[in-house]
TrEMBL record:
Keyword annotations: NAD, Oxidoreductase
Family of the protein in this entry: Belongs to the D-isomer specific 2-hydroxyacid dehydrogenase family.
Single annotated GO MF: glyoxylate reductase (NADPH) activity
InterPro entries xref list: D-isomer_2-hydroxyacid_DH, D-isomer_2_OHA_DH_cat_dom, D-isomer_DH_CS, D-isomer_DH_NAD-bd, NAD(P)-bd_dom_sf
Full protein name: D-glycerate dehydrogenase
Residues covered by the D-isomer specific 2-hydroxyacid dehydrogenase catalytic domain: 9-321
Keyword NAD included in the entry's annotation: yes
GO cellular component: cytosol
Amino acid sequence: MTPALPRIVVCRRLTPLATERARREFDAVLAEEDMTAEEAIAAAAAHRAEALLIGGTAKLDAAAIARLPGHVRLIANSSVGYDHMDAAAAKARGILVTNTPDVLTDCTADLAFMLLLAACRRAHEYDALMREGWRKPLGLPDMLGIQPSNKVLGIVGMGRIGRAMAQRARGFGMRILYNNRNRLAPELEQGAEFCPSLDAMLPRCQILSLHLPGGVETGTLMTAARFALLPKGAVFVNTARGSVVDEEALLDALKSGHLFAAGLDVFRKEPDYDTRFAALPNVFLTPHVASATRETRDAMGMRALDNIAAVASGRGPIDPV
């Protein structure tokens, strides 16, 4: 007799490749639109699901976790970040939690470096000028950007993505400073300078890039006081989480000229972000798409399914949180 397939609810839309696998290898309920927490709980109960594959729209706080039916054994996040859920509350109920920590490292670092270059070189303004018709030539002192080569780059959060960002920066001759919970081993530092105090590091950073998780533990890292510590004319890049930035303080720093420019992929409220950023010419914006390549989004869905398959087979999770 053929064993029953593991029952799962896929709470977010996946790429065609991952969707086909979910249909083939699991007894799966597949979301037509990304589910909210309430929809995910209802679907899990109706399907008697053993696992949920979720994304950021299914915000499973402690109250939502408490309402999950007892047959849910695993919550598989199809992303590296899991600040949209209360992992501690899940674990307290005996529910396993996984993420996808390796598959989007290079993709995220690629976009972060794109934001860095675009902010330094006024890409938004140049693009707007061209789309308006560009009929007046630019002279030597006009619309000058900042040359990123050989600048001092500060990285906050020297995990996989932070280290990948540093590797890209080395190709531009940048000097790397980093602030992290713990100092890395020399073979991981690769010449980067550890700064145990963020406040002491910031005045030395010509460019600052965030690569740390959001959530209660991190809180609002970049406040008005910390933006003020950056040297005048610095560039700010964020592909981490919008929750770690005081956006009013960031807007003030950009409007006043204290910051030369910013490259932003994440915001405190998504997708209903503060459109005052869009009105500023010195901000280059992307809509939380650091992992948005065909290769990476396939890999994210597949890795989440790998975790579900591993748990269902009794082997245990591959990427436990």
